[in-house]
Design brief:
The chain has about 800 residues and is α+β, with helices and mostly antiparallel strands. The protein has 24 helices and 27 strands. Strands 18, 19, 20, 21, 22, 23, 24 and 25 form an 8-stranded mixed sheet that branches. Strands 1, 2, 3, 4, 12 and 13 form a 6-stranded antiparallel sheet that branches. β9 and β10 form a beta hairpin.
Length: about 800
């Protein structure tokens, strides 16, 4: 029985090679596309999976309320870690961790900047990193010990044993290597090459001893018996109990949610925001692409039903029941899906390098992995069942008397209605993808081209290292004398990301019961001019920084909060009036941190010693390569022993839209694949329609019909379906993209031209696809079409 079934199936495949190829290729492309997306989704869901204690690990986050709005920060007070370890019995371990930053390490005049952080010894046991060498219990016990990764060990020592060796940090302090850990996988929340003791960091940052200063991350490991809700309740007012007047309200943030559920709105976790939004979106798209591919099989199987009508009739006369026929056709569908799965593995393997480059990941399809193997088989089973369901019931329903008498099967009613509906569904989904791609692209351009308050072109910045701050005036003068540089300035943060903010400022007329979150930035006097910012009132800082040590410049947003008139000359106080600052200027609002929002209130302090970055403005007509060479020579000459490393502000500006850019690129790829798969099905249906009307075409040609007329006759039905698809896709696409755009405060509008472009594009693509078949059918010699021998 099985042998006969396979023989019949293979004969049928060979007899209909064209339709078979279209089916298998369409399914394979759909399966390959969905496989790539599911690999990406798997990577997102398995973030931090290597940590054995994951379900007991938490980060302490803190809510702070200003002017009725609650903001969530990862920065916490320094004493919080030892405090909750001592006071809360459900806590097994706690640890500080600084944010990852690069530091210069050198060995035998070989300098390398390596990213790393400072932490407590408990951190190593909490996250139980895989140790290659060294003892986790004692690795960070000495203040100048250091733990490095395998990659960093190889960079400095090659194949030699690094344990006990010394690396000099920032050309000053030697650190002894006490352990080497395995490199962290890409899909982890931590990205460091070294860990040094927190005590070494605390020595230089004594302000961390105060409960009112939030400047470090805190991690917690709970005991298996602990109740997280109870500890959360204790944490809520814990800082206030230690330091009355502080406003931070800490809470536990489980490690299992760090990657996908890290978006907070007004102090509450937004379950629909963050990366989970994109995971859900791309998962849905994967299934849509897969279903579009399955639709091709349904359409082609039902369209070519007449070719198998006699086979069905003979099988029924010989005793085959409807159930057996359904099982046969479902089996054929599953076999074809299996072939498509095999082909999709090859397509996925070929596409993975390009896909990895697109999504900036290191995904791999391990066919021997049980998860991947079961996943592929499940996708194949789903495709086979969905694709073969309707054709199986349709083919098995033929009346044997009609088909064996040679009566023509009716080609109207349910079958043709379903086929047309499926074509409409395919192209509707494709048009939605096209509209989404265009809208995302327009939104990106809209935001990237907005007025940001400074000129980002020609700006590069470097992190201050060694004696660069002390030698700034010499560096600035030498840079200007190269002829390639207009000016240079110092700042505590890059202009795109201003890190520091606080709410402890007061001024005349301010509501004493409200705290307003204000961003603070320390700069050198050249900052506003170098950045290309404009003053709307008052003056810039004096060239001699000390003359403006108690003067500040504020932005327009803060000025409007303070007064309806001119804010220049106003007094702003801090620390209960102990520190007083005069407003000498108001800078026009410039965009920072969130490119989609209006600028938050900002204060600029003239305080060059407390800065971390130098920004350089190149001349507009400068040769970039020559300018970089000259800048590097100046920096190295004034700061020997340190490498010249820089970033262009414009490149970092583009990185601000990394997620949206990825979404747009993936939407474009999905749109192209959806159109390609849909066109495969449309090509097959058009070919079959032309084949069925061969004699009609021959007669019409004999009677004088032209090729354009015949092409139009054969194409119009399909083009009407595409027009109907537009009618369905347009409102759906508008609703989806309208909701997407509403998540951005600064957004573009969805214009009619987007729908016109998408609809016209779909019609043109469909017309070209159908024309490939119809023109070929229309130019055939009518003698060949009408002969009966």
């Amino acid at each position: 029985m099985l042998k006969n079934f396979l023989k019949s199936y293979l004969r049928n495949l060979w007899k209909n090679k064209g339709y078979t190829s279209l089916n298998i290729v369409g399914l394979a492309v759909g399966i390959a596309c969905s496989t790539l997306i599911f690999l990406w989704v798997e990577d997102e869901f398995t973030f931090d999976h290597q940590f054995e204690k994951k379900k007991y690990l938490y980060q302490i986050m803190g809510n702070q309320t200003y002017s009725g709005n609650t903001y969530t920060f990862s920065a916490t007070p320094g004493p919080l870690s030892p405090g909750i370890k001592a006071d809360m019995p459900g806590v097994a371990s706690t640890s500080h961790l600084t944010w990852t930053n690069p530091a210069l390490f050198s060995l035998d005049n070989k300098p390398l900047n390596e990213p790393g952080a400072y932490t407590d010894p408990a951190f190593l046991s909490m996250f139980n990193f895989k140790f290659i060498e060294g003892n986790p219990a004692t690795a960070l016990s000495q203040i100048h010990s250091i733990v490095i990764t395998r990659e960093m060990a190889t960079a400095f020592f090659g194949t030699k044993d690094p344990l006990g060796k010394t690396l000099k940090m920032d050309n000053t302090q030697p650190y002894t290597i006490t352990a080497v850990i395995e490199d962290l996988p890409p899909n982890t929340s931590f990205h460091f090459h070294w860990l040094a003791p927190y005590d070494a960091y605390y020595e230089k940052n004594q302000w961390l001893q105060y409960w009112g200063n939030n400047g470090i991350m805190t991690f917690v490991e709970l005991k298996p018996s602990a109740n997280p809700a109870s500890i959360d309740h204790l944490l809520s007012n814990y800082v206030q109990s230690k330091a009355p007047g502080t406003i931070i309200k800490p809470f536990l943030f489980p490690m299992s949610q760090w990657r996908l559920y890290s978006h907070f709105e007004n102090g509450k976790q937004d379950a629909a925001g963050g990366r989970i939004k994109y995971v859900r979106l791309f998962t849905l798209i994967a299934w849509i692409i897969l279903i579009i591919a399955c639709i091709n099989f349904m359409n082609l199987a039902t369209a070519s039903s007449e070719k198998r009508a006699r086979e069905v009739g003979v099988r029924k006369v010989l005793g085959a029941g409807k159930g057996k026929l359904i099982a046969q056709f479902i089996g054929e569908s599953l076999l074809m899906a299996l072939m498509a799965v095999i082909l999709s593995v090859a397509l996925t393997t070929l596409a993975l390098p390009a896909f990895n480059s697109l999504v900036d990941k290191q995904l791999a399809l391990d066919i021997l992995s049980p998860v991947h193997l079961v996943g592929l088989l499940a996708i194949g089973l789903f495709s086979g069942l969905v694709a073969g369901s309707y054709p199986s019931f349709y083919l098995s329903s033929f009346n044997p008397i009609f088909v064996l008498k040679g009566l023509r099967l009716k080609n109207t009613g349910g079958a043709i209605f379903v086929r047309q509906g499926l074509v409409v569904l395919q192209f509707a989904a494709s048009i939605v993808f096209i509209i989404a791609t265009i809208t995302i692209y327009q939104q990106l351009k809209h935001v990237q081209n907005r007025e940001i308050g400074y000129e980002k072109q020609g700006l590069l910045y470097m992190q201050l290292q060694g004696k660069m701050n002390d030698h700034f005036n010499a560096i600035r003068n030498d840079l200007i004398h190269t002829g390639f540089v207009n000016d240079a300035a110092l700042s505590s943060s890059p202009v795109l990301e201003l890190y520091s903010n606080t709410g402890d400022f007061d001024w005349s007329g301010k509501d004493p019961n409200k705290q307003i979150l204000i961003t603070t930035e320390s700069v050198s006097p050249q900052y506003i001019g170098t950045m290309g910012m404009k003053l709307s009132a008052g003056r810039d800082f004096h060239e001699i920084a000390t003359q403006d040590s108690t003067n500040i410049i504020i932005n327009e947003t803060l000025a409007h909060l303070m007064t309806k008139g001119n804010a220049v000359g106003s007094l702003i106080t801090r620390n209960d009036g102990k520190d007083k600052f005069n407003v000498v200027g108001v800078v026009k609002d410039f965009v920072y941190n969130d490119m989609y929002q209006s600028p938050a209130p900002l204060i600029l302090f003239c305080d060059p010693p407390n800065t971390n970055f130098i920004t350089v403005r190149l001349k507009a007509n400068a040769d970039v390569q020559k300018a970089l060479t000259a800048t590097g020579q100046v920096v190295k000459a004034n700061n020997p022993g340190y490498p010249f490393e820089y970033k262009f502000l414009n490149d970092e500006f583009i990185q601000q839209f990394k997620t949206e850019t990825l979404t747009g690129k993936l939407s474009g790829v999905f749109a192209a694949l959806a159109v390609f798969i849909s066109c495969l099905g449309l090509f097959g249906l058009a070919a079959y329609a032309a084949e069925r009307r061969t004699k009609e075409i021959g007669i019409r040609k004999v009677l004088g019909a032209s090729v354009p007329l015949l092409t139009s006759l054969l194409s119009k039905d399909f083009l009407m379906l595409v027009l109907l698809s537009c009618g369905i896709a347009f409102p759906v696409a508008w609703w989806i993209m309208h909701n997407w755009l509403n998540s951005y405060a600064y957004r573009t509008a969805i214009g009619w031209e987007i729908f016109a472009l998408a609809g016209t594009g779909a019609l043109v693509i469909a017309l070209l696809t159908v024309s490939l078949v119809t023109i070929k059918a229309a130019v055939v010699n009518p003698i060949k079409s009408l002969r009966t021998e």
